[in-house]
Fold each of these.
Amino acid sequence: MSTLLNNLNWRYATKQYDASKKISENDLQTLKEAIRLSASSYGLQPYKVVIVENPELREQLKAVGYGQTQITDASHLFVFAADANLGTESVDQYITNISETRGVPTDALAGFSDMMKNVVTNLTADAKNTWSAKQTYIALGNLLSAAAELKIDATPMEGFNAAAFNEILGFDKLGLSAAVIAAVGYRHDADDSQHYKKVRKSQEELFITL
C-alpha cells in the first residue's frame, strides 16, 4: 500500500485533542500552502481561510459550536469562509493575477474574463453563496490529506452556528460567510476513537464503471 493510502487510513475525525501539543511553524506553512494550491472553479478561489489561534476567541466560538472541545483544544482552528460578495471585481483581480503570473496581456484574457463575469453576475445571491461555499470543501479536502501526510490530526466540522461565527469573527464587515471549519492538531492518548477500524463502503459498492 502506498504511503498516501497508509496515511489516509491512519487519519480519522479526532474527537479529543492534546491541548499541550502545537503544530510547528514549518508544518503550519506546509498546510497553508496545500490549501493555497487547491483546485477551484476557474481557479477563482472565492473564499478566505481564517486561522484562529487566540484562546479567548476560540472559547467564544466553542460556545456557538455546540461546546465541541476540538474548537479550543486543537492546536489551530481553520475557518473556511466563502466570499459572500463575489462579483466582477473578484474576476478582475484574478485576471490581473493571471496576467502578472504568466506574463500574458490582460487583453488576451478578455474572453475568459467575460465568460466568468457572465456566470457570476447571472447567479442569484443564494446560488452564488452556495457555489462559493462548495469551493471551500475542495480546499478542506487538501488540508485533510496534507495533514495526514504530516501525521497531523484534523477534524472537519459542520456543526456550528455560522451566523454567530460570522458575528464573532467580523465576517459580515469583510463580506465573508463561514462555510466549514477544521480543528487541526494532535490526538490525545485518551481519545478512544483512534483505535476504531475505519468504516467505508467497499470499492464494489462505491464505484460504477461504465
Amino acid sequence: MDSLIPFTTSGSLVDCVDRKMLVVLRDGRKLHGVLRSYDQFANLVLEDTVERIYHGNAFAENFHGLFLIRGENVVLLGEIDLDLEDEIPHRRQVDYTALEPYHKNDVETKKQREELKAQILYEKKGFCKEGGEGDGY
C-alpha cells in the first residue's frame, strides 16, 4: 500500500535524473539542461545548461555548461519533450547579444510594474510589501 503513495519530497526527482529539464528560477531565468544530480534540499546540478531569453517572437540561448542551482531558487522544474523541443511554434532563434538589451528592458519594465502594484496594494488595501514586515517565516 505504501508503494502507491507518491513522493512529495525531493525523492520524487529520481525519475528525472539524466533527462533534459527546464528550470525556472525565482529571478525569472529559464534554464535548459540535463539533470545530473540533486540532494534532499532540491539543490540541482544541470549539465550542458543554456539560459534561454525571449522577446516578442524571438528567443536566444546563452551556453553556461555545468550549473549548480540552490533548491530554494527553483520555482518550476519540468521535463522537456525531446521530440517537440525543436518545434517552437512562431518563434525564431537569434543571436544572444542582439536580443539581450531587449530582454533586459523587458525585465526592468516588469520589475517597475511589480513595484507599482505592490505600492498600490500597500496604500489602498493594507498589504505589506514583499520582503517587508510580516513577510518572514
